[in-house]
Amino acid sequence: MSTINTLPSAVPAQGQLRRNLVAAAFNLVLGLSCALVLGPILVIVFVSFSSSENFAFPPPALSLRWFSQFFTTPSLTSALLLSMEIALLAASAATLLALLASMALMRLPSPKLSAFLQTLFLAPLVFPTIILGLSLLLFYRVAGIDLTFGLILAHVTVALPYAFRAIIAELAAFDAGLSEAAASLGAPPLRSLWHVTLPLIWPGLLSGWIFAFVVSIGELNTSLFLTGPGFTTLPIEVFGYLQFEGAQLVIAAASTVQIGIIVVLFATIQSIRWIAGK
Amino acid sequence: MKKPIPIKDRSDLRAYRQAALLGAPPIAYLLVFFALPILYLFVAGLKTPDPTAFIGADWTFANYTDILSDGYYLGVIVRTLGSGLGIVLIALIIGYAAAYKMESLKPQTRTWFLLLFLFPLMVSNVVRAYGWMAILGRTGVLNTSLRAVGYDGPPLRILFSMEAVVIGLMTILLPYMVISVLNALNTIDRRYREAAASLGASPWRTFWHITLPLSAPGVLTGTLLVFLLTLSAYITVSLLGGPRFKLLVSLVFDAVQTFQWAKASVLSFILLALALGVSVILILALRPAGAGGRSK
Q1: CB of B233 within 8 Å of any CB in chain A?
Q2: In a domain, B73, yes or no
Q3: Domain boundaries, chain A
Q4: How far, in whole angstroms, is CA A70 from its chain's centroid?
């Protein structure tokens, strides 16, 4: 190093080299992060198209055999169906509650109370989901609430903050003066909601609903205690297979189906943002 | 004791009435199906265990003292804290560097990278853990690749270990860190850094004294999210750690499987206490830096 430093022309070159190395290191970390985060998902999608009997990487040849087995395995298709039904109901209920909550918060003149309630509505987001599941299991048993209905309610609670965040952001961006103007011109609240607020905030409402749907369809830890044999959601069924029957490739196909649904929904949210942003 | 709400005029009163009407259903819902069940679980931990009922008849602290005086449980608590904080630290270093790089990219490119980090968060964690099983397993992607490049030792046994849990959880939660830090970096006025640089500060000095303190709120959010989510990730821990690797959350699950409700309750609230304690420490540690006004 000292010998290089004695050459005047080498000094800036050395600084340049160090800058390049630092830049390369940052590029490497960003690339590595993407690979670590996306890699496992891509591996599963790739092997689900395998033609082999057992897990092999890379697959010897591609085929759709595991998908056809997935769609002809009743326990898996019924789990997929149940997941979709619960997600549909839970996302709708969560969106409705989140809309009411957001509208209430926007009307509150007290910022302190508003901040407190916002924390309440976001609380299920950071609350350990497995403890929520356990609490609900005990509560349902003691209160005599049917577990099917209870599972939907659990998903509503878990999905609520996601819908709430999307809707309140949209409502905050939209001019509250508009609905006040409608009210001062004599429009009853429901009328101003239907004709003024909803047409303006639909992008937030729809992306809130999709977020809630996505959260519900992937929900694991809360559902763990609330499902049972013959009554499981797809993620719980996948978990059961992985834990007790080994990683069969039909489970990779089940996962890929799930990922496919998410891709479609994710693309929908992004296009809503894009359309609404124009 | 509720303080009377100061009401300025009639429009305020009307606003409160409307807010109460609109807010009543969601608030009632969360009280009944979120707060009440958790409260009930807490009570169950303070009652003598009763195998025939969910909740015993007599009040007691014995459930807590039994567990907190047992070395095995204390060991699991330490392991839970240690692995959680380790995951947070690795995610912070990698996630911060990734976010820092993303912040310097063109907005268009940055958005694409952001989508790459957002998308995996929507995929179920069981699928993402399965991906790591497929990579780290004995005949998994890693061992196959090693063999393909000429390694002919015994296959690496990473799956079903603490390392697998740390790798899996860290990468599953990494996007939360990246997105939180990126949000904070985006709000920093570029002129602060340009000013520091034009006054002769080295990039490292600028980072240490300007960028890092100003991004503290994002670091706090990311750190809190990652730590809290490591505590309750039962599925990931059990799939990647295997049946013998236990964290606090696994013990909660085992207690429920064996219908030991009081024990499950106590373990749950120890877990919540850890979550709360670490959160408070993190908030206290990272708040002052967020003010950005420190002299040194």
Answers
A1: yes
A2: yes
A3: 2-48, 65-277
A4: 24
For residue A50, the distance in angstroms to the closest alpha carbon of chain B comes to 13
Query: To probe the interface with A, which of B90, B130, B166, B254 has the most A CB atoms within 10 Å?
Result: B130
Cα–Cα distance for residue pair B10/A204, rounded to 1 Å: 31
Interface test with B, best of A130, A136, A222, A255 (most B CBs within 10 A): A130
**CB neighbour list of residue A108: distance below 8 Å, 6 or more residues apart:** A114, A117, B15, B16, B19
Residue B41 placed within a domain:
no
Query: Quick count: other Cβ atoms within 10 Å of Cβ B216?
Result: 18
Asked whether residue B274 is assigned to any structural domain, the reply reads yes
Its domain, for residue B257, covers 68-291
CATH class of domain segment(s) A65-277: mainly alpha
Contacts of B21 in chain A (CB under 8 A): 104
Contact B230, A129 (CB under 8 A): no
Per-residue pLDDT in tens (0 to 9) along chain A, 278 residues: 444 444 444 455 777 888 889 889 999 999 999 999 999 999 999 999 998 888 887 888 899 999 999 999 998 999 999 999 999 999 999 999 999 999 889 888 888 888 999 999 999 988 999 999 999 999 999 899 998 899 999 999 999 999 999 999 888 877 666 767 777 777 777 777 777 778 888 888 998 999 999 999 999 889 999 988 778 999 999 999 998 876 689 999 999 999 999 999 989 888 888 887 75
> ipTM of this predicted complex?
0.87
